Amino acid sequence: MAGTIIGSGITIEGEITSDEEVVVSGTVRGKLSVDGGVTVESGAVVEADVAAGTLSVGGHVTGNVSASDRVDLLAGGRLVGDVKAARLTIADGASFKGNVDMDV
Amino acid sequence: MGRAPAAMQPNDLDSISVLGRGTRVRGRVSGEGDLRVEGAVEGDVNLTGELLVEDGAEIQGNVEALAVTISGGLTGDVMARGPIVIRASAKVSGKLGGTEISLEEGADFSGRIEAIFDMPPELGGKPVGR
Lengths: 104, 130
Fold this sequence. Notes:
The structure holds 2 protein chains of 2 kinds.
Chain A: E1 4-6, E2 10-18, E3 22-24, E4 27-34, E5 37-40, E6 45-57, E7 60-62, E8 65-73, E9 78-80, E10 83-90, E11 95-97, E12 100-101
Parallel strand pairs in A: 1-3, 2-4, 3-5, 4-6, 5-6, 6-7, 6-8, 7-9, 8-10, 9-11, 10-12
Chain B: E1 16-19, E2 23-31, E3 34-37, E4 40-42, E5 45-47, E6 50-53, E7 58-60, E8 63-65, E9 67-70, E10 73-75, E11 78-80, E12 83-86, E13 91-98, E14 100-103, E15 108-115, E16 117-118, E17 127-128
C-alpha cells in the first residue's frame, strides 16, 4: 500500500513533499516533490510542477515534470508541460504537449 | 502505527486518503471523504468526512471536519460537526468546538473547549456552549 494517497474527493493546494510513494486520485495544485514514485490516477487533476523518482500519468497533469528515473504517460493520460527524464513512454491514446529533455 | 477507528477501515478505498509518515504538506487540504494524517500539514484542513491525526503526525492550522480524532500534535482551532476525540498521546493547542469532546488521560492540551449540546429540560432546555 502506498504511503500517501490523495483520494478522489480531496484537493490539496500548496506544496507537497514526500520521501515515499504518492498516489493522486484527487486534485493537487502547487508543487509536488517526491523521492519515490508518483502515480496520477485516471480522473485525477494535477496542476503542479512535479519532481519524482518515477511518474506514471493516467490522469491530467499540467506543469513541468522531472523524474530521476522515468515518466510513463498511460493511455487516457494527458500531460501538458515539459518533461525532463532519462526514460519516457507515451502510450497509444495518451495526449502530450511540451518539450522533452532526456538528458543526452 | 496508530489504530484506525472502525469507520475508516478500507471498505471503500476511493474515499480514503492518507498523508503518510514521510509526507509534508504546506498549504490547504480540502474535500470530501476521510483523511488520515501520519505526516505533517502546515495549513488549514477542511473535510466533509473524518480527520484522523495519528501518533507522530503534526498539524499546524485550523481544522474543520465531521469528526476529529487526534493522537498526534495539533496547533490550531478545531471545529467538528460531530465528536472530537483527543487520545492520550496527543499534544493539542487551540480552540475545540464539537458536539462531543473527549480528552483521554495523559493528553497534553491547552486552549478552550466549546461543546455544543442541549441542556436537559430541568436546567432550562436551552443550548449552551456558544
